[in-house]
Amino acid sequence: MVQINLPPNSKVQKGEYYKDKTGSKNIRKVNIYRWDPSSGKNPRIDTYEVDMDNCPSKILDLLNKIKNEIDSTLAYRRSCSHGVCGSCAMNMDGKNGLACTKPHEEIKGDINIYPLPHLKVKKDLIGDLSTLYKQYESIEPWLKTNTKVQDKEIIQSREDRLKLDGAYECIMCACCSTSCPSYWWNGDKYLGPAVLLQAYRWIIDSRDDERMERLKKVADELKLYRCHTIMNCTNACPKGLNPAKAIAEIKKMLATA
Ligand code: SF4
Ligand code: SF4
Ligand code: FES
């Protein structure tokens, strides 16, 4: 049997233990993945005892409390705190989601927090999304019209506007793509559910004049057909969207084009 070992410098080790100093009777243990590329050390799991009597309800509140009161070196992304910007996406209790909308009460026992899976890590909970952003750029996510001068609003019927529901709400958090096994193994070639949902959003926009060109651009064995309808993406989406359905719709459009 083949035995696959991690390189010694990527083995995750036991890290620091930060004991509660408040004397609170309401303590939870939070285990967080830590890695600082500038240290030359292995990744580790640090454990923090957190006073929950003085912590608001979401995982992001918990992280902010740790950063502000216990360990200022902890690195993670966040901006809006309201599930709008997508920057606080991470893996909590084994599931991808947005730290600012995930209640810590939903997690039983110790709280385990990791970066989004299968991304290169920049630091601690910050994954490297540069490949995903390049892929996003490649689908040209903007309106393309053949009209040279557009001096007034392009009107869309109510029915055509409604077709965009379920697609325009995507915040590009990458929870779906980083939960997709096909994207794990072929992330440099397969566009993945987040980018394909965005491609779909522009393909079906009645105001766009390049539907066929857009379809041709994604009609590729690796870019599109690596989706095997495993559905992890749809289960992972914190906005309740269905990227797997959008991918199926693109395939259907190509089959009937
Ligand atoms: S349905 Fe397709 S995109 Fe979604 S997780 Fe499965 S393979 Fe990935
Ligand atoms: S489809 Fe959902 S999970 Fe995927 S990037 Fe958009 S909002 Fe995030
Ligand atoms: S901080 Fe913006 S979505 Fe969580």
Q: Summarize the amount of helix as a percent range.
A: 25-40%
Give the bound compounds. iron/sulfur cluster, FE2/S2 (inorganic) cluster
Give a short account of the largest sheet: 6 strands, mixed
CATH class call of the largest domain: Mainly Alpha
Radius of gyration: 21 Å
How many DSSP-defined strands? 8
Q: What are the secondary-structure elements, in order, as H or E?
A: EEEHEEEEEHHHHHHH
Which architecture name of the largest domain does CATH use? Orthogonal Bundle
Structure classification: alpha/beta
**CATH-assigned homologous superfamily of the largest domain:** Alpha-helical ferredoxin
What would you call the quaternary organization? single chain
Structure write-up:
The chain has 2 domains: 120 residues, Beta-grasp domain (Ubiquitin-like (UB roll), Roll), CATH 3.10.20; 127 residues, Fumarate Reductase Iron-sulfur Protein, Chain B, domain 2 (Orthogonal Bundle). A hairpin with a 2-residue loop joins strand 7 and strand 8. The protein is built from 8 helices and 8 strands; from the N terminus they run E-E-E-H-E-E-E-E-E-H-H-H-H-H-H-H. The strands form 2 sheets. The protein has a 6-stranded mixed beta sheet with strand order 1-3-2-6-4-5, with helices on one face. Strands 7-8 form a two-stranded antiparallel sheet. Bound molecules: iron/sulfur cluster (2 copies) and FE2/S2 (inorganic) cluster. FE2/S2 (inorganic) cluster binds next to loops.
